[in-house]
Amino acid sequence: MNRHVNDLFVKNSKKEGLRSRSSYKLIEVQEKRKFIKPHSIVVDLGAAPGGWSMATTKYIRKEAGGRVIAVDLLKYASVENCVHVQGDFTHERTLKEVETALDGRAVDVLLSDMLHNTTGHKQTDHFRSLDLCYAALDFADSFLGTGGSIFMKFLRGQDDKELVSAVQELQFIDGVKILKPAASRKESAEAYLLAMDRAAPTALRAQQD
Ligand code: SAM
User: Fold this and answer.
1) What is the pLDDT of residues 12-24, one digit of tens each?
2) pLDDT digits (tens, 9 = 90+) for 114-154
3) Would the pTM of this model clear 0.85, i.e. be above it?
4) φ, ψ for residue 71 (rounded to 5)?
């Protein structure tokens, strides 16, 4: 608690009106890689208390078609210009609600900062984090459009390579990068995966021919 209160990122997030320390992780990567565009349809998984969603609304423009659909188990104060879906993302009913909110549009950016309450047992936490990542990837497989990107948190461990392979199967022109933003505590097992520019199905067929 003491470390949290004295943390520079926590202090700045309060001063700058950001809802979470995590906001800086997304902002840092977005400022470098620009994967969220003004027209992007963004699905933000594990969105409470709204830090990433709030940061994302600064990068999109409603007039350009940009939208944020935020999903979390928890109820929290809504973020302006976001559609909120409350529920467990691994449940069919929540997926259906997200699908309804998409209204036939493809997802341009899938964000996932989902994490269970950690147990402190490194391997258990790693596997539980990967379960959430795989749920996000299943969704991406069906709903992430051509040119789409994924920015996702996971807790590092023995099956990292399998996770990267699963992302690679979705075919990203820009490949898959593992990142550790400055705001992510060095001692934390968390890391972020960025995959940009999903290939068009026709380009894939041409590659395979
Ligand atoms: N990105 C957020 C921000 O900047 O404010 C912080 C997210 S917090 C680290 C992780 C969130 O994941 C928690 O709010 C938790 O409720 C959510 N979560 C964990 N499992 C989930 C699931 N199965 N479905 C939806 N949300 C989930």
Assistant:
1) 666 666 768 899 9
2) 999 999 999 999 999 999 999 999 999 999 999 999 999 99
3) yes
4) -125, 130
From 25, 153, 177, 186, active-site residue: 153
37 lines ligand 1 (CB under 6 A): no
The CA distance from 11 to 199, in Å, is 40
- How many helices (H) and strands (E) the chain has is answered by 8, 7
Is the CB of residue 128 below 6 angstroms from any atom belonging to ligand 1? no
Q: Is the CB of 115 under 6 A from ligand 1?
A: yes
Task: Please tell me the distance from the alpha carbon of residue 68 to that of residue 107, in angstroms, as a whole number.
Answer: 10
Q: How far is the CA of 112 from the centre of ligand 1 (A)?
A: 8
Is 153 annotated in the active site?
A: yes
Atom of ligand 1 nearest to the CA of 44: 1
Residue 108's nearest CA partner among 201, 203, 204, 198 is: 198
